[in-house]
Task: inverse folding
């Protein structure tokens, strides 16, 4: 999948991040548990290295729990700490708060200040709302803070900067583009849903064909992915006049079912898939060459 995704936004996002980092003691980087690698932004690694960074793996309820545990262990090598959670239900948030309270303060006379960063639609807002809670109180402007920025009190001795900004990833590979599009981190309008659905189908057939078969009551899951997508469309009533399959409607149905875990709790990226230089994936879940590259 070839996607051109607003590269001009990156310069502005990095500038805002650089400015805000001067004001905080630590950073929470929000990652999607289904794509822990692709939801990291490699273009800000040098900036984040200036502060302790806690990785918050959101949407853990949609991902494979065993694979999430493996990612938590692997990511600890590059982060101050790692926590897996579901921001919508609140599961794991208490553990994250406990971790945040262990971060050393740069200035003992004031609360620990935090900032949340992450790519679009990775769960930043849900996490911020869950951390803030109903009893959160704005603590007002602080010295040295740009006009308009305010701090929110999370808990005892913890404050959150409420303007984290958007951080856009630089898409460097077809595999990364697929991962980001599949979980909804890229706007649906800028890619072909049928193309994405066919790549998603390839992944499902290679890894969990039984889930695909059970979900759509398919007699067989062999054959071309386009024909299987047409069969799903027939079975789910994705039809136009004349009884022909509306392939785009069927594609969007498959994508939606994946995103809502109706095809099972699936993780698209495995720890062992990281290449030697941490920039490319080399194998899929079955251990064969990835059909997505």
Result:
């Amino acid at each position: 999948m070839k996607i051109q995704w607003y590269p001009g936004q990156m310069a502005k996002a990095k500038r805002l991040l650089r400015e805000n980092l001067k004001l905080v003691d630590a950073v929470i980087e929000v990652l999607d548990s289904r794509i822990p690698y692709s939801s990291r932004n490699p273009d800000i690694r040098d900036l984040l290295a200036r502060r302790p960074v806690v990785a918050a793996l959101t949407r853990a309820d949609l991902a494979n729990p065993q694979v999430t545990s493996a990612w938590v262990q692997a990511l600890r090598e590059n982060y101050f700490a790692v926590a897996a959670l579901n921001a919508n239900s609140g599961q794991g948030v208490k553990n994250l708060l406990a971790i945040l309270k262990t971060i050393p303060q740069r200035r003992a006379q004031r609360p620990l200040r935090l900032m949340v960063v992450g790519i679009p639609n990775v769960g930043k807002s849900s996490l911020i709302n869950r951390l803030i809670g109903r009893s959160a109180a704005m603590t007002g402007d602080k010295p040295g803070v740009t006009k308009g920025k305010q701090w929110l009190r999370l808990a005892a001795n913890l404050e959150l900067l409420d303007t984290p900004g958007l951080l856009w990833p630089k898409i460097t590979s077809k595999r990364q583009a697929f991962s980001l599009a599949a979980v909804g981190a890229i706007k649906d309008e800028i890619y072909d849903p049928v193309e994405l659905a066919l790549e998603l189908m390839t992944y499902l057939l290679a890894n969990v064909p039984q889930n695909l078969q059970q979900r759509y009551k398919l007699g067989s899951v062999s054959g071309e992915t386009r024909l299987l997508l047409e069969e799903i469309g027939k079975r789910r009533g994705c039809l136009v006049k004349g009884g022909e399959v509306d392939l785009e409607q069927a594609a969007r149905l498959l994508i939606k079912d994946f995103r809502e875990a109706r095809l099972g709790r699936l993780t698209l990226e495995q720890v062992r898939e990281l290449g030697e230089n941490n920039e490319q994936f080399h194998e899929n879940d079955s251990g064969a060459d990835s059909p997505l590259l």
